């Protein structure tokens, strides 16, 4: 996949065509989206209610990597294909089937969706090779609002600021320290470490700690990085931003390979989602 070298304006698309705006956003940031979603997922593990559900789910920890990849792949496939097409309908049907078997609180489901709305935008604003437009933010917010409705979730946030308010208020209620949080984060960081060269994998927790909000450290049991280390890691990603802006179009690099997910047929993806959501 090529990263577009042409500055994109939402004026090129029908402002009401949410799917085309979101699809172009994903095409322009094929590496940043899955990376931001993966890091954003740690926010969920700062909620003991979520971590305890995952730890207690039979078989989840043994297959956590596969299930996590399936959930991330489902989100990216929905963004690529939209909720209305055959791929999107099949994925949403699989999610609906799984949800019908388990009484997952609506608040937790919407909180998970808030990560898919907010964290890619925050990441791109910091490290993206071009600025993200307000219309793109709103398109992403409305996309997941529509997905939530199709999932049968009542009264989901609609605009970007609505999702921000929802996430902030939800985290105020749900976030806290717990041993289960630490256990899940240890597993997540070991998986994250596989994205890096073998010699640097021992620094995974430090890198993660430097990239996430400092308010999450205590809840997740992660170390507080030194200011110099945080500056070094942030500087590396800003250097990447400048390089991508200057050299675009470029082909996916070592980084994109580490975050690329295998192409899955909709039936395979849907089946994996069902087994994942059972957790």
Distance between the termini: 33 Å
Strand content: under 5%
Strand elements, count: 0
**Major sheet:** none
Please, what is the average pLDDT? Answer: 81
Which word captures the global form?
A: globular
Radius of gyration: 18 Å
Low-confidence stretches: 1-13, 251-279
Helix coverage percent of residues? 55-70%
Number of helices: 14
SSE order in H/E notation? HHHHHHHHHHHHHH
Structural class: mainly alpha
In short:
The protein has 279 residues and is an all-alpha fold. The protein contains 14 helices and no strands. The N terminus and C terminus are likely disordered.
Walk me through the structure:
- The protein has helices at residues 18-28, 32-44, 48-56, 64-81, 86-101, 106-127, 134-150, 160-174, 179-193, 204-211, 217-220, 227-247, 254-259, 266-277.
- 34% of the residues are buried.
- It is 67% helix and 0% strand.
- It has 279 residues and is an all-alpha fold.
- The protein is globular and about 45 Å long.
- The protein has 14 helices and no strands.
Describe the secondary structure blueprint for this structure.
Elements: H1 18-28, H2 32-44, H3 48-56, H4 64-81, H5 86-101, H6 106-127, H7 134-150, H8 160-174, H9 179-193, H10 204-211, H11 217-220, H12 227-247, H13 254-259, H14 266-277
Helix pairs in contact: 1-4, 1-7, 2-6, 3-9, 4-5, 4-14, 5-14, 6-7, 6-8, 10-12
